[in-house]
Automatic annotation (TrEMBL):
Record bears the keyword Flavoprotein: yes
Annotated source species: Jatrophihabitans endophyticus
Domain Pyridine nucleotide-disulphide oxidoreductase dimerisation: 351-458
Chain sites annotated for binding FAD: K50, G115, D315
Protein name: Dihydrolipoamide dehydrogenase
Note describing how the cofactor binds: Binds 1 FAD per subunit.
Matches recorded under InterPro entries: FAD/NAD-bd_sf, FAD/NAD-binding_dom, FAD/NAD-linked_Rdtase_dimer_sf, Pyr_nuc-diS_OxRdtase, Pyr_nucl-diS_OxRdtase_dimer
Residues annotated for NAD(+) binding in this entry: G187, S188, G189, V190, T191, G192, A193, E194, G274
Cofactor entry: FAD
SUPFAM superfamilies: FAD/NAD(P)-binding domain, FAD/NAD-linked reductases, dimerisation (C-terminal) domain
Phylogenetic classification of the source organism: Bacteria, Bacillati, Actinomycetota, Actinomycetes, Jatrophihabitantales
Residue span, FAD/NAD(P)-binding domain: 5-330
Length: 469
């Protein structure tokens, strides 16, 4: 059989995960990447922000140590942001290099440059041009299969253009040489909430500008309430029903003008108002690849675009902007292209976590659907403060909310708000993915005392005699 030639544009989680699968299955794989293997996930977005938050978690632990009888002897907790930023950048770069080395070890060819479809397409195959930093075509490659995995870029409001000094995108913050005296975070989606929480926990005065009446508008309202309480208790300021009309430099700082005329002043503004897909300049028109109504590359559940043998995965598809989903979309694309058995992506089985203090993890059917009665369900919510281990650790903010199908007891979702919710959600994710019931969870003998004990306890409370019959 002939060896399939696969070209992947973009070396983020969608691109590198699919390259590894395709190489393992014997394809001849080339990855073309513009900004560094690992993509924005590793170099500028996910990995750096989670590393920053690991630092702020340490600060939180030191500050809250008095809850368990430990003090700092009156000394302040000091954060050396220059050292923190240096560590973040080195860690991200190292992670990028580790992934690039792995690709090369697996026989993948890695080319640096911007990939695009050539204006002259051969017909049965695809012709890709690799454009170098000077704008010249450095390489031309023929491919039997193309995977588009070009990710996204921070959305820029024309009235609030980042300057990298005072008006920042989330990609600029690691270059700051001074600690913001007063950081204004504009946008209270997942990105805004994480940065507001992270910087606030690290001791920076933060004002969070939220366009709605609560932070994290897409998330569980009970979870958002906890985040607001902890943020304000730490000294953060929330400005609600506040849409930024413009952000400009003023004196030594910035001012954020809201659409209702209010003005919020601070030293720096961090814009977290969403992102846009990287589809410009890809020459999609030459290949006939269609976009959806929001400007993302349209794909089905096995990552096929409108053109046979051209696939797309990750943030450029807008399916669910998570590194985990990007990687799985990419693997599914390669399995499909290379004739392996493949199950379409099931979005409701995806676990997601918001790395605020405390973290919010969720999986399954959204809580709003069961709370409204749209889907009959049994629901239980256990405050973290009822868990013995949480009491010992002094972690009292949060809860475990678990729900199952009313008739059968099948676990259909959970929202967990806890310091390590990202870890606690895993058993529930497995239950949702494998169609387990609350009986299965309740009958599992876990560790005592443990936070995961609340997951088993919630399952026990959801059991009915019928489930045992
Ligand atoms: C602040 C922040 C924190 C996040 N934290 C998390 C988290 O904790 N967990 C999580 O699951 N997700 C997180 N995400 C989301 C996650 O980062 C994205 O879902 C993920 O990066 C998507 O991966 P990707 O491969 O589609 O794209 P990317 O990671 O964006 O990679 C795309 C790559 O393609 C390159 N490229 C673009 N155009 C071309 C071209 N024409 N030719 C060649 N290369 C090109 C880019 O330079 C880039 O290297 C976070 C996002 C943000 C903004
Ligand atoms: N931990 C994680 O896994 C993680 C972290 C960050 C991002 N992400 C992914 O990225 C996705 C996008 O998140 P995001 O927060 O970057 O974007 P988003 O689009 O979800 O949120 C942007 C927010 O900014 C607000 N906004 C827009 N214009 C505004 C203005 N002028 N003034 C004030 N507010 C304004 C919007 O109302 C919205 O609430 C998430 O859904 C998630 O999939 C994941």
């Amino acid at each position: 059989m002939t060896v399939l030639r696969i070209v992947i544009l973009g070396g983020g989680p969608a691109g590198y995960e699919s390259a590894l699968v395709a190489a393992q299955l014997g394809a001849r794989v080339t990855v073309v990447d513009r900004d560094g293997i690992g993509g924005s996930a590793v170099l500028t977005d996910c990995v750096p922000s989670k590393t920053l938050i690991s630092t702020s978690d340490r600060v939180t632990a030191m500050r809250d140590a008095s809850r368990v009888g430990v003090g700092t002897g009156g000394g302040e907790v000091v954060v050396d942001f220059a050292a923190v930023n240096q560590r973040i950048k080195e860690l991200a770069q190292q992670q990028s290099e580790d992934i690039a080395e792995r690709l090369v070890r697996e026989g993948v060819t890695v080319l640096t440059g911007s990939g695009r479809f050539s204006a002259s397409q051969p017909g049965r195959t695809h012709r890709i041009e690799v454009v170098d930093a000077a704008g010249g075509v450095a390489d031309t490659i023929e491919a039997d299969v193309v995977l588009l995995a070009t990710g996204g870029t921070p959305r820029v409001l024309s009235t609030a253009v980042p300057d990298g000094e005072r008006i920042l995108s989330w990609r600029d913050v690691y270059d700051l040489t001074e600690v913001p005296e007063h950081l204004i975070v504009v946008g209270s989606g997942v990105t805004g909430a994480e940065f507001a929480s992270g910087y606030s926990e690290a001791g920076v005065p933060v004002t969070l500008v939220s366009s709605r009446d609560r932070v994290l508008p897409g998330e569980d309202p009970d979870a958002a309430d906890v985040i607001e309480q902890v943020f304000t208790r730490r000294g953060g300021t929330l400005v609600k029903q506040a849409r930024a009309a413009a952000v400009r430099r003023s004196g030594g700082g910035v001012e954020v003008e809201l659409t209702d005329g209010r003005v919020v002043t601070g030293s720096h503004a961090l814009m977290c108002v969403g992102s846009v897909p990287n589809v410009e300049g890809l020459g999609l028109e030459h290949a006939g690849v269609a976009l959806d109504e929001h400007g993302y590359i349209a794909v089905d559940r096995v990552s096929r675009t409108s053109v046979p043998s051209i696939y797309a995965a990750g943030d450029c598809t807008g399916v669910l902007l998570l590194a985990s989903v990007a990687g799985m979309q990419g693997r599914i694309a390669m399995w499909h292209a290379l004739g392996e058995a493949v199950a379409p992506l099931r979005l409701k089985t995806v676990a997601a976590n918001i790395f605020t203090n405390p973290e919010i993890a969720s999986v399954g059917i959204p809580y709003s659907v069961v709370a409204s009665g749209e889907l009959p369900a049994r629901i239980v919510k256990l405050p973290l403060a009822t868990n013995a281990r949480a009491k010992m650790q002094g972690h009292l903010d949060g809860f475990v909310k678990l729900y199952c199908r009313a008739a059968t007891g099948h676990v259909i979702g959970a929202v967990i708000v806890a310091p390590n919710a990202s870890e606690l959600i895993f058993p529930v994710t497995l239950a949702v993915q494998r169609s387990l019931t609350v009986n299965h969870l309740a009958a599992t003998i876990g560790v005592y005392p443990s936070l995961s004990g609340s997951v088993a306890e919630a399952a026990r409370q959801l059991m009915l005699h019928d489930d045992l019959d």
